[in-house]
Amino acid sequence: MITVLDGGLTTVPGFLAAGVRAGIKRRGLDVMVLVNEDGPAPAAGSFTTNLVKAAPICVTMEHLKNGKLAAIAANSGCANAYTGRRGMSDARRMARLTARLLKLRSDDAAVASTGLIGSHLPMRRVETGIRTAVSDLSNSREASLNAAKAIMTTDTFPKEVAVRVDLEDGTTVTIAGIAKGAGMIRPRMKVATMLAFIVTDASASPAYLRDALDNSIQQSFNMITIDRDTSTNDTVLLIANGRAKNRPITLKHPDRMLQAGLDYVLTELARMIVRDGEGSSHMIEVMVKNARNKQEARLASLSVAGSNLVKAAVFGRDPNWGRVVAALGYSGAYFDPSKISLEFASDRGRVSLIERGKPKSKRAIERARDIMRGGEIEIHVDLAAGKAAATAWGCDLTYDYIRINSRYST
To answer: What is the dotted CATH code of the domain comprising 283-406?
Structure first.
């Protein structure tokens, strides 16, 4: 059983958080610290596959080699990406300072950054922010919310989720996470930027956490697209401190309920990111069924969700189903065009636009226009080629997206 809680990271016993303002950004909180009170604990991470990886990713990947972490320090306002040797040195300084203040080893701390690529971190401000955040660490509701706010860039709202899950052995555990992301979003992680930090009090091995995290990412973060640009800084980190004292979960002895809880948290965070897409006015959910296999279902759904022409049509409330069909056709998924079916839906209703390869009447188009007045648009596709299904999420393409990204660096 999964129960949704009101809260974020600090709903999980043993974790403290803080978010503070250091002046890295023009306004708002911009430095976050998260720590496990019990010290280094089993952890896992997943990172961008972009060849240009930000310095904090390189440092964090090094620190995760032993499968344990105790703390995360993150900043917004500067990505510390494509910053050469100085960038690496600055990322290591962030980790060292965080670890020293918390009486940890340097490799017990992970670091993450988000913001403008190619700029060096203002280290005096970053270090002041880390010191302030460490002194402000708390398990309060406000502390988690501030941590979520501190990693925001062009986000319009903080993103946090917490759930309580009953494991197969009867133990109750908590899983919680925060995330940021509104632009430069098309995560392609090995099984603005996307960051997500997840914590749980479950007892699990690092190998299991890596496997479970990869499984969840494949159906959540890797199935969202805002602008089809893969960031240099995409990072997801998961720490499990074991306070729940459940039967240890390993690759040989997995727990389907822990996986289900993790899936729920990551999927909700992913949907929040899409809902907050830069300048967006509609969320788009593309559900493909009856594909030949899972991979082709994923390709088809992501192709439609990421199509600029589909995005523009949704913004204009134009039920141009031809753009959906075209996106399916170049997706790489195999199907017989004369057999597909297509429906649009929202909270205003549902309408069939193509049935077994045959377009519907003009009356259906008029009905679709009204349906597209809803805030969340569903596109249902039946490829009639097999039994596999997948869902992808995107958002519409608006004038505001152009405005935001035409002057991001200035």
So the answer is: 3.10.20.340
